[in-house]
Amino acid sequence: MSILPAINNALGADWRERTSAESRLLPQGKLSGPMPWVIAIMIGLTVVATASGLALRNTARAARADVAGGVTVQIVHGAPRERDRQANAALAALKSAPGVAEARLVPQKELDALVEPWLGTTAGDDVNALPVPALIDVRLSGSADANRLGALRQALRGKAPAARIDAQASWLAPVFEAVHALQWLAGGLIALLAFATIATVLLASRNALGNHRGTIEIVHMLGGTDAQIARIFQRSMAVDAAAGGIGGLLLGVVVTSLLGRQFAALGSGMMAAGGLAWSDWLAICCIPVGGVLLAVLTARLTVLSALRRML
């Protein structure tokens, strides 16, 4: 049993000797070079773009869930008494209609608050003189599809002829389309940043190979393999990418937090629903790892391809 520690020590010493010998073949990268800073910028921008895309996705999901079963009924009539009569009749019909989870007549005070920024109404104005329709907020047990809207119109046709029924999701359709376009924009930006990172690592690796071409040829003549040389370059690139990735992650998190505070100050319900969950932050924290792997793989493939052409 005493021979096992000796074997382990011998293997460890041999591995350290090989690593030290490989590291002496070519100069190692330094953190003072431009590569860590370039990668930090790329990772920082990727973090911001990813966080923005995830926040937009969360906002769209929350908004769709909130208005999926929402229906607004407007009683548009110029005579206040007839408008109120049809509103009460429509409210009673909606409460007894199948598939309706909740129906609420919006109070006049809420309507006054809604139109005040646009019409300048105050407590002393005669609001009934304004052509403000009565509103009924309806929540369905399922989604507000065309069939359910048609059934509601049929139920209100005789009791409230002036009723107009609209799905709340239709009002936000342009917003959802804009959010979807912004998500595609964020995804395209992430793809471009990944391509730019690959191109940067490729150019840096080729430049390093050109600077050490003479040393590499001597190493080849002394029996050094392409794999040994490639390991040196990819190890140096891994250190630079890791340093840049950590710095870029911190930069991106700070920028994302500042942007989140700015949007939260707007007081909008949609903006509040666009917060990042713990799973989103976990995905964001994995970005530097992906950046390191991408940089190391690019450096290895670039070096091996160039070394084959040297022979």
From TrEMBL:
The chain crosses the membrane at residues 37-56, 181-204, 241-261, 281-303. Keywords: Cell cycle, Cell division, Membrane, Transmembrane, Transmembrane helix. GO terms for biological process: cell division. Coiled coil: none annotated. GO terms for cellular component: cell division site; membrane. PANTHER family: CELL DIVISION PROTEIN FTSX. This is Cell division transport system permease protein. It comes from Novosphingobium taihuense. The lineage of its organism: Bacteria, Pseudomonadati, Pseudomonadota, Alphaproteobacteria, Sphingomonadales.
